[in-house]
Design brief:
This is Protein eyes shut-like. One of its GO terms (cellular component) is membrane. Keywords: Calcium, Disulfide bond, EGF-like domain, Glycoprotein, Repeat, Signal. It is built from one helix and 58 strands. Among the domains are: about 200 residues, Jelly Rolls (Sandwich), CATH 2.60.120; about 110 residues, Jelly Rolls (Sandwich); about 180 residues, Jelly Rolls. The strands form 17 sheets. Strands 47, 48, 49, 50, 51, 52, 53, 54, 55, 56, 57 and 58 form a twelve-stranded antiparallel beta sheet that branches. A hairpin with a 5-residue loop joins strand 45 and strand 46. It starts with a strand and ends in a 6-residue tail after the last strand. About 30% of the residues are buried. The chain is an all-beta fold and about 750 residues long.
Amino acid sequence: MPYPSDAENWFCKCPDLYSGKLCQFNACERSPCGHGATCVPKTDQDTVCLCPYGRTGLLCNEAVNVTRPRFSGIDEFGSTSFLAYFTIHNMSFYFEFQLKFTLANNRSAVKDNLIIFTGQKGQGLNGDDFLALGLRKGRIVYKFNLGSGVATILSEPLNLARDIHIIHFGRSLKTGWLKYIKPNSTSEAVTIANIFLKVDDQRNKTGSSPGQLVGLNVFSQFYVGGYNEYTPELLPAGSHFSNGFQGCIFDLQVQTIRNGRFRTPGKPEGHPNAGRSVGQCEDTPCSLVQCKNGGTCIARGSTVYCKCPLEWKGALCTETVSVCDAEHAPPPRCAQGSTCVPTPYGYTCQCLLGTTGMYCEQYFFSVSLTHGFVQLRYNLGDKTVILQASDRVDASGKTWHLVHAGRKGNEGYLALDGKTVTQNLTVGMTALDATTDFYVGGVSSLNAISSNAVEDEPVSFTGCIREVIINERELQLTESGAHSGANVGDWDGTACGYKVCKNHGSCNLNRFKQFTCTCPPLWTGSTCAVSVFCADHLCQHHSLCIPNIPTASYSCACSLGWEGKYCEKYVSFLTARFAGNSYIKYTDPYYETRNLKFTKVSVNFTSNASEALILWMGTAEDEDNDYLAVGLHNGKLKVAFNLGERISVPLTYNKTLLCCNKWHSVTVIQNRTVIKVYLDDEMVLYEDLDPFEQYVALNYGGICYFGGFELHRDITSLTSALFTQGLIGKVKDVILFQDSKNIQFLQSSEGYNVYSGDNQVP
């Protein structure tokens, strides 16, 4: 639960057994640790003490004198090794730092490791001020942000054969510099006229900080070796390193006046005000700990503990492990809330009421027949809900029945041939956590079915099933549509399968066992798929005939590049006009060469409706496909992204009404997970979709839709209700990525009902 804080306007009040800025860490119920150490649970019974600065030992009861701090990065519990000093004052316009470091002997020490950080996450468009120094892929990375953009200076790869590395870096106003000095080097730092980078005897690299701001405004503590807590969502964009430093950092000094005196951070100098798991370089804390029964001593800075083999537990691995202990390998699989009971041959799980299965973890959704009645049963993890239709089904096999069954949250419904029964639970679970295959007619093993999923002993279905639709997606009940199955045949063995004759036509077999369709009055063709009003249509150039039943006529939906009553006139244009049932599908010819971690798209548009899909970058074939979407909702700009499994919350700018056929320009920039949106050349939206950067690339498949989708596809369903209708308006001047030219709508494209808007007044 968030509570206000004087420092950051809020803090989280954590429930029992949790700690951390966001309550993300497990905490000990009872702590044996001394001297203010952080207690973390190693198992249900065992704990580890993360020692504060100046302390070491299993319980942090022993003092240690730290003159050359040793850091260990992020430990297996998610906590970082770090030192924190009071804020360094007078850094706004000038600073210089120098330090030395040695690296731990492992690959992760140079993979993505923070050395120094100070700063804070900005609010909205106000910017993120920070200073960060780290290691990434074997190179020194120096970054700072004065509130108007991140400046980055990158060294050449370090010579890992060297024992000691020396860094000298600084900043003056909006320019900064970084110098990596060989040990025993006598070279002096050059003047701070540009951003430059020097490593060993290599030539300088120069650069310039973006934006117009010149002051660094930081209020946080000055961190060395790691963050106090690695919580990416609370760190400024661009400052993230996934691990802390691994090795020793020493002789750290700073000056904030040009040609001034270098000083050691801290008050008094050289004294941090906080720290965790920081040891003395070259000390061996494990020399004080004797792990028993094959246990391994683990040292993380000044923190030390025993990692026990499979059969043992305890601080020194002196206690045996039961099959029901979490330390056992493999651990017991009993679901949360159930009870693990040891047996002579292993263990068994005693389930809570409402759960079932070998491990008490079965969730399910099932439709079954019981004594002639259709039943819907589902379990969301708390209890089984049962709904039964009011009428029996025809068991003679002569009648097709229509079943609708589903749930929304914890409310279920079941309808048989139009008669509906519902059940609304006011409390309880609302999500179905089922990850198995979807079975129709039976399952591969009846023993896998929960006893609560059916009323009696489970048996497979005998009968015929056709048209199974799940969340508006029809399952293909064919050999190619299903990935497995057994003992399934065609329901009547003839050419008259379901849906052969469209629009309620009736199917008949001739003496050669071939089908013919008898069509209703308004339909014709071999499968009754053609309207009688379109039987002799005059639409040209691959246009579509659209019947108008009330007027007993038709109209032509022209393919891209044609217009006129019968699509007989060729047309070219730079401005595309959309009519609400229009679309352009553009295939990007340069997709294979695009940098998908950095996407930029610019478009000018008008609209005379408050709802509109303007742009959809993505294949739109599946709800999990990546996309970048731009449109209008209630006349306001709406932008949405999906970079992977995690679908982000749409971004909406509510301060400007975009209507009335006025031209507006929109530019959307995606830099990994950071999103910037410009409206009429003003940045109006800024968001980091996923600070953890699980997904960073927009895999849009080289497809861009403008104005809508194909005519048979529903916009609301395809966009999961992000947008509800196509654009009624115009689009021009579309630029993708860093291209020098606008895209040409009539090249590499297809579409329908798109008109020229070149000569029309908005």
